[in-house]
Each structure stands twice: as structure tokens, then as C-alpha cells.
Amino acid sequence: MFEDNIEINNYNDDSEQHDLTYIPDIGSLSNQLKSCLQESDDLPLDFTKMFNNDLFKFDTNLVPESVELYKKLNLKHEPLSLISPQFESPMPPLKPAVFPPTLMELPNPKLELYDLDE
User: Fold this and answer.
1) DSSP class of 50
2) How far apart are CA 111 and CA 118, in angstroms?
3) CA distance linking residue 88 with residue 85, whole number of Å
4) 77: Cβ–Cβ under 8 A, 6 or more apart, which residues?
5) Containing H/E element for 29?
6) DSSP letter at 44?
7) What are the residue ranges in the chain where pLDDT is below 50?
8) 55 CB contacts (<8 Å, ≥6 apart)?
């Protein structure tokens, strides 16, 4: 069914030598599996205990502590005021020109359009 006479085209020119690329034998490696032993903690029966909601909570528990910090640091406890933004202008402000612009004058009409008697 299978032929033992297989011809392989070997291109062994002296001018061009190709580097050999070694490929691991994946078939034999798959038969030599090695297990990885790792100990882990037992999981609790109530899976909701595995979640830590303190990391991303949004509440006002720390507000009294922050108000007391104003007293400890001798700062006035005032609402924040709005600071007006100052935008940077990419171009300097425009100034009026000192000299009027020089405009191109129209060329004189051609001689055929002149009435020479006038």
C-alpha cells in the first residue's frame, strides 16, 4: 500500500548552503507527559466568601475621618472653589499691519482698445 521508494529533491548547491532547522519530535514528547504538583487551599462551601467587595466599594465611610484631618492640619473646611482655566493659544494674538498691503496693479489695456483720436 505504501511505497518505500520515495525520492526527495535535494538541492545541495555549493553556492547556497541552507542551515538546518531542528524540530523536536512532538510525537515522542506527547507520550512523555509530566505532571505538575501544586497544593491549593480548599474552596469554601459558600462561594460568595471568595469575593472581596472592599476593593471597589463606593460609600461615605471615610468622610468623618477626612473632616477630622482638617482640624489636625489646622486647615479651613470650605467648599472648593472653581479655578478658571487658562488656555494656551497656539498662535500669538493678531496685531494690525502698519503698512497697507501692496496690491498688484492691472496691466494696461492693449493698444487696439485705445481710441487714438481722443
Assistant:
1) G
2) 13
3) 10
4) 67, 70
5) helix 26-30
6) P
7) none
8) none
